[in-house]
Amino acid sequence: MGLSYQSKLVALISSVFISITVCLYYVLTLSLSESNLRDIEKQLGFTSTLIDDQLLDKTEDIIYYSTQSSSISQFSNQVPTLNQERMLLRLHELANEFRADRALLITKGLTIKSDTYIQKNSPQNFPYPDIRDHLETNSAFQIVLPMNDVIYHWVIFPIQSQNETLWLAFGNEIDKIFKYALDNISPLNINLSFAYEMPQSHWRYPKENFRLLGADFEHAIQKYLHHIDEKNATQLSIRQGNQVVFMLPLIQSKNSPKIVAILIYSFSESFKPYLTIIYKVIGLFLTAFVLMATGLILINRKYKTALLAIVRFVEKLNEGDYQQRLPYHGKGVISQLSTLLNNMIAKIHLREKELLHKTRYDPITELPNKSFFIEQLTKILQAHEAKQLAVVLVTIHRFPQINHALGHRVADRLLHHVGARIVGAFEDASFVGKLSGNVFAMILTDVMPSDAENISDRILDLFENPFSVYTVTIDLSAHVGFSFYPEDGDESDILIQKSDVALFKSQSNAEHFAIYDASSDPHQFNKLSLMSELKEGLQHDEFLVYYQPKVDLKTDRIIQVEALVRWMHPYKGFMSPNLFIPLAEETGHIKKITAWLLNQTFAQCALWEKANIPLQISVNLSVKDLLNRNLLKYINGLLEVHHINPNNIIFEITESAFMQDPENSLGAIKKMRNLGFSFTIDDFGTGYSSMSYLKNLPVDELKIDQTFIRDIAQNTKDAQIVRTTIELGHGLGLVVVAEGIEDEAAYELLKTFDCDIGQGYFMSKPVALSELEEWLKTSRWGLPTISHK
Ligand code: C2E
Ligand code: CA
Ligand code: CA
Known about the structure:
Blueprint: H1 5-68, H2 70-78, H3 84-97, E1 102-106, E2 111-115, E3 124-125, H4 132-136, E4 141-147, E5 150-161, E6 164-173, H5 174-185, E7 190-198, E8 202-204, H6 207-213, H7 215-226, E9 236-240, E10 243-249, E11 259-266, H8 267-318, H9 333-360, H10 370-382, E12 389-396, H11 399-406, H12 408-425, E13 431-436, E14 439-445, H13 452-461, E15 467-469, E16 472-474, E17 478-485, H14 492-508, E18 513-515, H15 527-539, E19 543-552, E20 557-569, E21 573-575, H16 577-587, H17 590-610, E22 616-620, H18 623-626, H19 630-642, E23 649-654, H20 655-660, H21 662-675, E24 678-684, H22 691-696, E25 701-704, H23 706-709, H24 716-731, E26 735-739, H25 744-752, E27 757-759, E28 767-768, H26 769-778
Parallel strand pairs: 17-18, 20-22, 22-23, 23-24, 24-25, 25-26, 26-27
Antiparallel strand pairs: 1-2, 1-6, 2-3, 4-5, 5-6, 7-8, 7-11, 9-10, 10-11, 12-14, 12-17, 13-14, 15-16, 19-20, 19-27, 19-28, 20-21
Helix pairs in contact: 1-5, 1-8, 6-7, 11-12, 17-19
Bound molecules: ligand C2E and calcium ion (2 copies).
């Protein structure tokens, strides 16, 4: 675990602080030590000469004063008469007068008659007989001598008492003289001590002091003292580290003990004033440091609180709270950050709203899209908001055609208008959305299957008036599919899917609306199991080919049959192709059906060719077949097996199948036509019907979709369309087929329209081969008499 931000900061500052202090200390000591020690040496040398001078001054003062002072002469006269006590008293008075620390009265024989140091005088000898030489001169002199372990500077001069010469000695403690001098003259703090020689060259000095200086010093000092004669008593300074020892030999008389003043200067002493500065600086630093640390902690705490607030802010953001704002305003970093975050969140909010809108709304109609619709339906179903409801899907009739003819810009605008009309008219709808391309969806609550027709009428009313988009006016109609809750399911996916099935049904049956009907729902079976059953069914002869006659309307005789597949499911029973063909196309299983069917029809064709029965067979091809690279090879193989004339086979393809991949489809069609096969456009009118494509499509027939044919006799509009289409087909050199003829009226009408071929229940439903053969014999549209063979 790492240190906290706060501890790191404190550690950093303390280390900076410590390094600064250490640096300061070293810079000061380094700069002080060398130069200062040299200065100090000089000062000590200077001090010693000053002391010498002072001693001399003192001597001269005393001597001069002694000649002037009447007290000396009075004392000289009184001496013979004074008893010990009185003499000592007088001597004290003199010592006071001459400001001496000690006074002695000495005889020529060096007996001390009186001594102010010793209160009760008993005659004693002066301990340095060597001074006799001085006494001989009969004049004043100075000398430094220790007495009673005290070193004195003595000024000794003769006095005349009756017939005897006596000597007065005034002594001043040399210690005091030095101290006075050092205090007044030198600012240095110097440790002063003295060493003096005792009999047998034995030196007395404060050993303890020197020992403290260290063995090297002591040794050097001893060496100096013992060789002081030879060196002729010169000064000496010894330096080591922070210490300087300065030795100063004091004025000597021959044969008197040698005395040396030892001045010790410790550099650390001189460093003291600086140390106090350093201490002050350290103190200042320390105070500053404490203040800073406290400040830091406080600031840090402030930042920590702010950062924590920001963390909480971001957490809430994560949970989707975009309303919150950070409360920091101003110029600080936190405030800037908080302003940035606040701005950012506002932008994110806006962008998310936009994004959400994009993911939930269809950009063309601005209506809720499929996922939003499902979400809403799920909500309503889960909340049990309604006891019953309908999922209503609305699609525009022949919208792909319109899209193609008018272009996407107009078509998109049109979708927008349709959406707006639906929303405007169905204020009672719980929700309106757009599921896909041109499929609108509505949730209507509290309605049941019996309301479907009513609702469907309301929807179709919306399409009564034409739509005008830009400058174009467009007539539209619609298909409506219904599924109901709870009848068809209680899940949104299922309800939508079932409504979609119903919508598909209404489109394929050309009805205005359809209600979901389980019995005709191709999706009601499990897709996967159905498709695996389909594979098995093909192997187990569960499939049959039904044939539906196509009649030549000029001769009223059969000319073609359309081959339509049938599945006798072992336990689901008879299955309409509408139940499995779309699924087989979706899953690619159609290729197997097609292969099977082609084999069957080619074989049948071969039989009819052999029997001279002039029947062409039309076979439906899905887009998957058309784009199947192996199809051509397969058909070539079949041709080799069955030896049929390709002119007898017509392939039916729908426009929408073709449009899925026009380029490759075109290639396949061309190759097959080169082999001699013909092509029909199936379900013409329900797909794109692009005239430009139609013009270039290499087909032979046009099969008008049954939705146009069925009511042709009743519906003049349809009749008009069919008539025009027939003319158009002929114009393009195509054979025109009408599919879905259910009554005579239609049949007759189409004849008058000059339609070439007719197909429909009126003539015959698709039937099994045996039934067809019967029909061929008995029907009024049966084969022409074989006579013209
Ligand atoms: P389609 O190709 O349009 O076939 C014509 C459909 O219309 C047939 O339905 C036929 O029974 C029906 N029909 C013909 N005349 C009339 C009429 O006068 N009134 C009414 N109401 N219906 C009529 P079917 O056989 O149920 O086939 C439905 C669809 O299944 C076919 O439509 C076709 O797209 C597909 N299909 C059928 N067999 C095959 C096949 O072998 N291969 C492929 N690829 N599709 C097939
Ligand atoms: Ca067909
Ligand atoms: Ca058809």
